[in-house]
Write a structure and sequence with these properties.
By secondary structure, this protein is an alpha/beta fold. The protein has 3 domains: 189 residues, no CATH class; 137 residues, Rossmann fold; 190 residues, Alpha-Beta Complex (Spore Coat Polysaccharide Biosynthesis Protein SpsA, Chain A), CATH 3.90.550. Helix content is 31%, strand content 25%. The strands form 5 sheets. Strands 16, 19, 20, 21, 22, 23, 24 and 25 form an 8-stranded mixed sheet that branches. The chain has a 6-stranded parallel sheet with strand order 12-11-10-13-14-15, with helices on both faces. Strands 3-2-1-5-4 form a 5-stranded antiparallel sheet, with helices on both faces. Helix 1 crosses helix 3 and helix 5 packs across helix 9.
């Protein structure tokens, strides 16, 4: 699908008159899915597909007419011919397709899309189809992930930031029609080719590059040996970088969609490359090596403070599926097989920890979050445990003494947001934090800043239960009593914003009892926080 849009830019740039056909909607059984696209010229089909067979033949016939008249077409086609019909389609469904006679009219949107894909960024292409008697007008807009989307831009269709994030995550196009069906929005997620960064231009790196490029990966090869990192040696690579391994990732963009495989010439080089990317956003990191070598690198990196235990656990090491591979080519096959498995797995749900640290600590008579605890401060302890968990990111909501609190946790490299209305109570901090979390995030674990006793294992248990039960609210329970932290699916984001605030999140739970899962934990600490000097003295003993 991506190649179609890159090809349409090339066709427009060459001055050729082409028609862009897109399957917009299907019903019942059809040979292709919405979003399938093809380019037609006066000679017929040039590239892509809209399903083949009778459907594509009909689209091609109409495309020739459209190319001649320069008028767009929005057409429904029935696929319910009888079994004896030699020309009709017997799938039993129907399909609606758009034929855009003048894609150059929306060249700006296609150019923006092309630029995003070249920068390894995904996004959403919105095609607005206006239908009126005697004609069809097509307008397209491109929104790259990460840029600020005007959430009310398509308010009349009920399409906002959350809906766009959901479409991106589910990787399925959506169609929205107004009541008169005179205007249609086709909302299509578009993704760059998966970006594989191979660190190491030796024999394994060379075989891996060839197989990965053949399998649809856009490959960048990195090595510190200019005699090996060459286009002649890696003709399938999209990019080649000559760099030392310590700083190589400063020269290559790394995103959530990046795959990194480390196959250098030795364990020191492997460790240097891993150190440079282990804290990056890369969705996949793999490293070659024996179990002994990996254990030694792990021990050294954790003991030196380079990474945490949970961060190293995310590294695929030894890299590749276990297929008893022996030769270089077999090793490359095992790695590519694992990359494909990872790429094609169901979208992973993104979960953040949100630490509420905005209160005035009136009952403690000093800012309790800055009080000593376990060799650090209370807030540092809480943030450290959240950071070591399996949550993807940590957000801290500050308020009272925000500057001092943020200074204490600065080294943890987490995100902070200040609640300037913290005096209105805890729920104001909940709203401040919820609205600061990106729309793509699936769930949030609401943590109290004055619960340094909570263990990372409790946080991980909530995450595990969320993935297992697929319910919206996970509450830890000790001997029948509910405690904190609480995991909340952000499908409730709008509902939370509409709560009165009198009872905070308790109201959300009262309105959605069927969404609650009580998770029994062996940790009395979930029931306690540090409100008073007596609480503090008792806890530190």
């Amino acid at each position: 699908m991506n190649n179609i849009y890159l090809k349409i830019v090339a066709e427009i740039g060459s001055g050729k008159n082409v028609v862009l056909g897109t399957l917009i909607k299907t019903k019942g059984s059809t040979p292709q899915v919405p979003g399938s696209s093809a380019i037609f010229s006066s000679e017929g089909l040039k590239s892509g597909t809209m399903g083949g067979g009778v459907l594509e033949a009909e689209a091609q016939k109409l495309a020739l007419k459209v190319a001649h008249t320069k008028t767009n077409m929005y057409q429904e086609f029935e696929l319910n011919a009888s079994i004896n019909d030699k020309t009709g389609a017997i799938c039993g469904g129907s399909a609606v397709f758009l034929l855009d006679a003048d894609p150059a009219r929306n060249l700006d949107a296609f150019l923006q899309l092309k630029k995003s894909l070249e920068n390894h960024k995904q996004g959403i292409l919105i095609t607005q189809i206006n239908l009126f008697e005697g004609g069809v007008i097509v307008n397209r807009s491109w929104f790259s992930e990460g840029e600020k989307i005007p959430c009310d831009f398509y308010a009349e269709y009920g399409l906002g930031c959350e809906e766009m994030a959901q479409i991106l995550q589910q990787k399925k196009p959506g169609i929205i029609e107004n009541q008169e069906k005179s205007r249609v929005l086709f909302v299509e997620p578009v993704y760059p080719e998966p970006h594989l960064i191979i660190v190491g231009a030796g024999h394994v790196g060379k075989a891996l590059c060839h197989l990965a490029a053949f399998s649809g990966f856009n490959v960048t090869v990195i090595d510190n040996r200019p005699e090996l990192a060459t286009k002649e040696r890696f003709p399938d690579a999209g990019g080649i970088v000559v760099s030392d391994f310590e700083t190589c990732f400063e020269k290559v963009p790394v995103t959530l969609g990046s795959f990194i495989v480390i196959v250098t010439q030795g364990h020191r080089e492997d460790a240097a490359a891993l150190q440079g990317c282990i804290k990056s956003e890369a969705g996949y990191i793999g490293m070659i090596g024996s179990k002994r070598k990996i254990a030694l690198i792990r021990e050294n990196m954790i003991s030196s403070g380079t990474c945490t235990d949970s961060e190293f656990n995310k590294v695929y090491a030894p890299v590749g599926l276990d297929i008893n591979s022996v030769t270089v080519k077999e090793i490359a096959v095992s790695i590519v097989a694992q990359l494909i498995c990872f790429k094609n797995q169901k979208p992973r749900k993104e979960i953040w920890c949100m630490v509420l640290a905005a209160g005035e600590s009136k009952r403690m008579k000093q800012q309790k979050l800055l009080m000593p605890y376990d060799g650090k401060t209370i807030i540092e302890t809480v943030v450290g445990k959240a950071k070591d968990s399996e949550a993807d990111k940590v957000l801290v909501v500050t308020g009272s003494h925000s500057e001092n609190v943020e200074t204490r946790i600065k080294l943890y490299q987490i995100q902070c947001v200040e609640n300037k209305e913290y005096q209105k109570g805890m729920f104001s901090s909940v709203l401040c934090g919820i609205n600061a979390i990106p729309a793509k995030v699936n769930a949030v674990i609401v943590m109290l800043g004055d619960q340094p006793m909570i263990q990372t294992s409790v946080i991980n248990s909530l995450i595990k239960e969320y993935h297992k039960k697929q319910r919206g609210i996970i509450i830890p329970v000790f001997l029948g009593q509910r405690g904190h932290p609480v995991l909340i699916d952000l499908k409730f984001r709008k509902e939370i914003n509409n709560l009165t605030g009198n009872t905070g999140l308790r109201e959300l739970m009262e309105l959605n009892p069927d969404e609650i899962v009580e998770l029994e934990v062996d940790s009395e600490e979930i029931l306690r926080d540090l409100d008073t000097p007596e609480d503090y003295k008792k806890t530190i003993k």
